[in-house]
Amino acid sequence: MQEHQRRFPLGIVVGLSTLVVATGGATAFFTWQNAQKNQSTPVAVEQPQPNVQRAIPSQNFIKPQASTAEKTAQVFWLKESATDVELVPIAIKVKSDDRQEALLTAAVNTLLSNPPNKDLMSGIPQGTQLRSLKVKSDSIYVDLTKPFTAGGGSLSMTGRLAQILYTATSLDPQAKVFLSVEGKPLTVLGGEGLIVEQPLTRLQFEQDTGTKQE
User: Fold this and answer.
1) Would you say residue 40 has pLDDT above 70?
2) Which end of the chain is more exposed for a tag (fewer CB within 10 A), N or C?
């Protein structure tokens, strides 16, 4: 499958018992006496009991555990070209369950590590860590550590925003991303004061940066 690249003109793409009576040479007296007893003494008749089965643990009643399988996620890296910088998606195999949060958490953590090869790079400062990632309805909440805001010019800052935005929305490109640093919403990024309007969306980002998708 051909990978799509986004170009940024300004820099980034971005589980019953039986009763037995013995009879013999009994006298009429005993016969009469037994008859009287039979009339006056109620006979307890054992009622058939329902067929109740003992609950025995069985593998058929054991709830199967959620299977863990390999899922595909996308991580977006940067690549320099002769005229601009491209945002390049790389598919990765993730051992995870079906929850979006687990898949996206694995993808973002991969993004915060080293690029997979020397042709790709990242605008995200080293030491940046993911504090939390939550998915609520059509919104994704990403909280990073403070190094994310350190250093770099406008191109680097635009690139790192694009990497986080596109990786976090790789399962739902229409989703909204709310980005925070150390628990506080990110409004300004870097020393040059790049304004960050929340929520971040791919559509708005592409309009703001002139991003083109090939």
Assistant:
1) no
2) N
Write down the domain spans for the chain: 6-13+66-213
* Residue 188 CB-density burial (10 A; 0-12 exposed, 13-18 middle, 19+ buried): exposed
Which pTM does this prediction carry? 0.69
> What is the arithmetic mean of pLDDT over 122-132?
96
Q: Is 146 helix (H, G, I), strand (E, B) or coil?
A: helix
Q: Which helix H or strand E contains 188, and what residues bound it?
A: strand 188-189
Phi and psi at residue 28, in whole multiples of 5°? -60, -30
Cite the beta strand spans of 6-165 per DSSP E. 6-8, 69-80, 85-96, 130-136, 139-144
For residues 68 and 173, give the distance between their C-alpha atoms in angstroms, rounded to a whole number.
Answer: 25
Per-residue confidence (pLDDT) for residue 8, from 0 to 100: 55
More confident residue, 186 or 80: 186
**Residues 189 and 161 sit within 8 Å (Cβ to Cβ):** yes
Check residue 98 and give its pLDDT: 60
Structure tokens at 40: 């006056």
**In terms of Cα–Cα distance, which of 123, 198, 133 is closest to 170?**
133
> Residue 197 corresponds to which tokens in the numbers above?
């309007």
pLDDT, tens digit (0-9, with 9 covering 90-100), for 145-168: 999 999 878 888 999 999 999 999
Q: What are phi and psi of 197, to 5 degrees?
A: -90, 130
